[in-house]
Write a structure and sequence with these properties.
heterotrimer; A alpha+beta; B mainly alpha; C mainly alpha; A: alpha+beta; 9 strands; B: mainly alpha; 13 helices; 3 strands
Chain lengths: 250, 399, 166
């Protein structure tokens, strides 16, 4: 027993080496651990909140198809028929009232919640909400864990399951990351309050505004006025997420 | 106070063909698993059964099983260090190494299934501390480090008095870790299958049962490999523990479903799991409850079967089978059930709204899952060969 | 204290594999390609070379820093500055061409690929980003199929019923 302990004492060099290595490793790793990003943007205007008002009474099935087509054309994604892995930034939903049998169609996309569960659960902060209210995926930091897809109450997000080749310059998208409706953020950044998302552009012909884009926080904006006049519902309002997309006619 | 003879630990020395074939076989399966993961990375997830409806699949079932079992495998060491049950002390080192091995295997599966696994560095340097997933990354890696330290303190004779506080830290850490794992699902308000505070303690009790079942199987295997003595009386204690923990899991499952059944808004979901869910219903009643809870309880407590180590082995295997079924139902069944976005309406869309999500696991997912399990077992078997982890023998109790 | 012989053997095995694996891989590769004979890249000068965002020497060294910084500003803050934007780079260095002349990142003559292949610095930008400029007609050709596919089954059936004759 004594000899074993003595041999341990005779190896101070090894102990010093281990101590030094541990200290070096900690010093190298510590700055990396501090590099966490919070989920809020900083420089965009704090007062704005972009939203959509969708009047389902004014939308026929063909209109909603046109919305979905327009989004695909704008961003270069394709909705494959009956493919469980196909991307779907916006989709046509057919609602049949269980009791009365009444049918209506509406477009369904990311609801750009004020309190998005997808942002809360993203481990890297890739899913984030800009200061102007648009909820996006930062695909540079997305690791493809799909937890945000589990958390989304509206099934708004899609995961890209294969290698892509023909991306459009305005909509970078690639295998292994998650994507969803961006509220046409490239148009919003260019045109501000005058921006018209592709889905709205497709149905707002002839002066009618079946899908209205605007600043929800500006009481004088057209969308706020319309909301004041006619009201609208939030989907799954009981969850308290305060989505930026509102629906009339439901 | 009667002085016990000091427990002697030694590396296993067996060199039979059987032993080497086992190791090589495990290594091959692990390698194939990694190759499958690489193929998934190169081709994209379209080769798997996972889709935009069921985003987490069989790899996650395997991974969560291993992670939950890892935290449970540490139980015996905690019983010795934290709760002072000296009778479990000889098994404490093996308990710790098994915990590390299982966690590494589970973490490997989880990370290899990511859409962009090469961004692991991003995951380790960008933290959203509101995310329970981010916390879990810290908890899992911290667990490995803490249990390694704990193991070393147990093995280094002069540091022995520090093994008790280290054991306490490890114990508390693993409770937080398992709470975090259960909360991955428990915090999801959007889905009817989750959104429950009960999931966190349920996962803790599941970890007790699953971890102990894995521990029993690998303990018996390790002792047999080197033909060391493992008396049946030692196993009797583990048998009783497994019985209590399995009963605990059953209790939580009953409470979980009964509570959900009380709310009319949950009736559709409960009907799906308990009656009309096809594979999920079959797995629930036959495998999770029948084979995974009730039959093991019979095998463990039947008076005529006491002292039979083979029935303990079978019971442990059944608990593990039930574990996989339970996790399959939680993880995949929970996603297959559609979101209720428009109450009162029948919903149809091209994005599979309103319909049960379909999922059938692909070969790649099985390979990845098995690869993770065999990696974990391989790590444990190699560790007991190079480090003095295994007690030289556990004879019948003398007092 | 004697070190565990099993541990020593394990370490020796790992070292042997670790040292010999690269050598074996190089040997395997040498037979297949013209090993050691990669041409020095000479990416072509774009038409507007005088107006490049920074001097050539600066760009050679630091283009990745500008790109990495700009991408955060674009994604997180919505700043779509033309100066350092990736779309801006591509519009100059791989502008829209006729269909037959389009150069993709897989081609060794692609502006970015020519240097990155030589230096063996793997980039994943073009797994997501467009690697070439597109004219508006080329863009709509790419996405035209979306219209073709988007007919819902119901609309299709309606059209089919109508075509079968009322």
């Amino acid at each position: 027993m004594a000899t074993e302990l003595d041999n341990i004492e005779l190896r101070p060099a090894r102990r010093q080496f281990l101590k030094g290595a541990a200290a070096l490793a900690t010093t190298l790793i510590a700055p990396g651990v501090m590099l966490y990003k919070t989920a809020q943007a900083s420089t965009a205007d704090q007062q704005l909140r972009w939203g959509l008002l969708i009047d389902t009474n004014a939308l026929s099935e063909a209109d909603v198809d046109a919305c979905v087509n327009a989004c695909q054309r704008e961003h270069g994604w394709k909705a494959e028929e009956n493919s469980p892995t196909s991307a779907q930034w916006i989709r046509k939903v057919k609602l049949t009232d269980a009791e009365s049998g009444h049918q209506r169609f509406l477009p369904m996309m990311c609801q750009h919640c004020a309190d998005p569960p997808c942002v809360d659960v993203c481990p890297t902060g890739a899913s984030f909400k800009r200061a102007d209210g648009i909820v996006l995926v930062n695909k540079h930091t997305c690791i493809g864990c799909r937890y945000c897809m589990m958390a989304c109450p509206y099934k708004a997000r899609s995961f890209i399951h294969e290698n892509l080749k023909d991306q459009l310059p305005v909509a970078p998208r690639g295998k292994g990351t998650v994507e969803s409706c961006t509220l046409c953020v490239h148009r919003v950044d260019r045109d501000g309050a005058n921006a018209v998302p592709a889905c709205a552009e497709a149905v707002n012909q002839g002066g009618r505004k079946a899908i209205l884009f605007g600043d929800l926080n500006d009481p004088q904006s057209e969308i706020s006025q319309r909301l004041r006049e006619l009201g609208a519902v939030k989907l799954r309002a009981d969850m308290g997420l305060n989505p930026g997309v509102r629906y009339q006619g439901l | 106070m009667k002085m016990q003879p000091a427990m002697r630990y030694a590396e296993i020395k067996t060199s039979t063909t059987g032993y080497w074939s086992l190791l090589i076989g495990l290594a091959l399966i692990a390698l194939i698993g990694f190759a499958a993961a690489h193929h998934m990375d190169v081709e994209g997830h379209h080769i798997t059964g996972m889709s935009n409806q069921v985003v987490w699949g069989l790899p996650h079932v395997f991974a969560i099983f291993l992670i939950v079992a890892a935290s449970g495998a540490l139980n015996l060491a905690s019983l010795a260090s934290v709760f002072g049950k000296q009778v479990y002390k000889p098994l404490a080192r093996f308990s710790a190494i098994l915990a590390i091995a299982l966690l590494v295997g589970g973490l490997a599966i989880l990370l290899l299934d990511l859409g962009r696994p090469e961004r692991l560095i991003v995951a380790m340097t960008h933290y959203n501390f509101k995310s329970i997933f981010a916390w879990n990354i810290i908890l899992y890696t911290g667990f490995i480090v803490i249990v390694m330290a704990y193991l070393w303190l147990m093995m280094e004779r002069r540091m022995h008095r520090w093994s008790k506080p280290a054991g306490l830290v490890a114990f508390v850490w693993r409770l937080i870790l398992t709470t975090g794992t259960g909360s991955i699902f428990g915090f999801l308000v959007a889905r009817e299958a989750y959104d429950s505070a009960l999931l966190a303690p349920m996962f803790i009790v599941m970890s007790f049962a699953f971890g102990l079942a894995m521990f029993i199987l690998l303990l018996i295997l390790s002792f047999r490999l080197d033909q060391r003595e493992l008396d049946a009386s030692q196993l009797q204690r583990l048998r009783k523990l497994l019985g209590i923990f399995t009963a605990g899991v059953f209790y939580f499952v009953v409470v979980f479903h009964l509570t959900k059944l009380y709310g009319a808004q949950n009736h559709d979901f409960e009907r799906f799991i308990l009656a009309e869910g096809g594979i999920y219903t079959l797995l629930f009643w036959l495998v999770q409850i029948g084979l995974g809870n009730l039959l093991p309880l019979v095998l463990i407590y039947a008076p005529r079967l006491q002292g039979s180590s083979s029935t303990l082995v079978i019971a442990s295997m059944l608990v593990i089978l039930g574990a996989f079924a339970q996790l399959y139902i939680i993880i995949i069944g929970g996603q297959a059930f559609p979101l209720n976005i428009f109450p009162g309406y029948v919903v149809e869309s091209s994005f599979f709204d309103g319909v049960i999500g379909e999922y059938s696991p692909s070969l790649w997912e099985f390979l990845l899952g098995f690869g993770g399990v065999t990696s974990a077992i391989l790590i444990a078997l190699l560790a007991i060969r190079v480090l003095p982890i295994m007690p030289e023998g556990l004879p019948a109790e003398t007092q | 204290m004697r070190t565990n012989p099993s541990l020593l053997r394990l370490l020796a095995l790992i070292t042997l594999i670790g040292v010999s694996a690269p050598g074996l891989m190089v040997a395997a590769d040498a037979g297949a390609s013209s090993f050691g004979q990669v041409a020095i890249p000479s990416p072509g000068k774009p038409a507007d070379a005088a107006n490049c965002v920074e001097p050539v020497a600066v760009m050679r060294r630091d283009h990745m820093k500008y790109l990495l910084h700009q991408r955060d500003e674009t994604v997180l803050d919505g700043e779509r500055a033309k100066k350092y934007s990736l779309v801006g780079c591509i519009d100059c260095h791989n502008p829209a061409k006729a269909d037959e002349e389009i150069v993709r990142y897989e081609d060794p003559q692609h502006f970015c690929a020519s240097c990155h292949n030589y230096t063996s610095v793997k980039i994943d930008c073009f797994e997501c980003h467009a690697d070439r400029g597109l004219s508006s007609s080329q863009q709509s050709n790419l996405t035209l199929q979306a219209d073709k596919l988007q007919l819902s089954m119901q609309t299709f059936r309606q059209k089919l019923d109508r075509a079968r004759g009322d």
